[in-house]
Every structure is written in C-alpha cells, then in structure tokens.
Amino acid sequence: MKASSPYKFAAALLVFAYAPAAYASDGTITFSGAVTASTCTVKLNGGSASGTVTLPTVSTSALPSTGSTAGSTPFTLDISGCTFTGATAVTAYFEAGANVNGTTGRLTNTGGASNVELQLYLGSNYASKVAAGQSNQNAATPLTGNGQLRYGVEYYATGAATAGSVASTVTYSLIYS
C-alpha cells in the first residue's frame, strides 16, 4: 500500500479551510443617532469651563475607615447661551478616565494621601452619588435654558486614611437630549 503524500494532505486541509460555512440570516440591526449643533457656554463655579474645586483640609481622624466621608464641598456648572437644534435640554456627564475607579465611579487620588478617593454627588443630596464613567450615573435635572447644574464632592475613605495631599481630575461633557 502506498503512503499518501504530505502535499495531498495539505491540499485536503486547504479545501476544507476555504469551504463556505453554513449560515442563516436571523435579523437586521439598524443604528440611528444624531449630531447636533447645540452649544452652551459652561463655567465651573462662575469661572471658566475648566478649573479647580478646593476641598477643606481634614484630619485623618475624619476618615478612619472604609466608607467614611468628610469635607463636603459644593460646586456648580453654570450653563448659559444654549442654542438647541434638535434637543430640548442639557445635563453633564462625568466621563471615565485614568483617574476614575472603574468599579465605584469615584475619583482616584493622585496625591500623597493613601486610602482616599473623591466622591461626587448631586447638589446637596449626599445620598445621590454620581458614578463617573458609568452609564447609569445620577445626573442633575436637565436644563432647558440658562441655569446651574449643582454637584458636590467629598473625601471618601477606602481604608484608614493617611496624611498627604489629595488631587484628582475628571473630564465632563455636556449631553444634549
């Protein structure tokens, strides 16, 4: 009996590799969206669109264990000059990024203190947390014209805090709906 050539075997493999796969079409997905010319002027606490919110200095004893919070500080995004084309309202969305804890949505600390993150919340409602970068984040009531989107930020302990500086950044976008 004659042995098969390795070339015949390779050719057979190629035939099977390029044979058409059996498939059936089960449906069609249509995507739709819009790009709007809507624009607004935004100012952080009455300044420019970007700026710094300074939290008060707190003692490590104010952040003794996971879940402790301190230093609540309000801030506003002042919205004006909105021109709505195809949209009727605007709100802010805090985006994911290098300084956002992907699990909790809190802002990670880039300063020297350890076991401290920054937690965003709506207005004076400390219970209504804003989880940056998450699609289900709480949002301020959409504005239909000029006004303020009110938020707050506070220190959040992820363990017993140690002394040092606390700093972080987050990018936000205006969402027109």
UniProtKB/TrEMBL annotation:
Keywords: Fimbrium, Signal. It is found in: Fimbrium. It comes from the Bacteria. Residues 1-24 form the signal peptide. Belongs to the fimbrial protein family. This is Type 1 fimbrial protein. It comes from Novosphingobium flavum. Gene3D superfamilies: Fimbrial-type adhesion domain. InterPro entries: Adhesion_dom_fimbrial_sf, Adhesion_dom_sf, Bact_Fimbrial_Adh_Pro, FimA-like. GO terms for biological process: cell adhesion involved in single-species biofilm formation. GO terms for cellular component: pilus. Its main location: other.
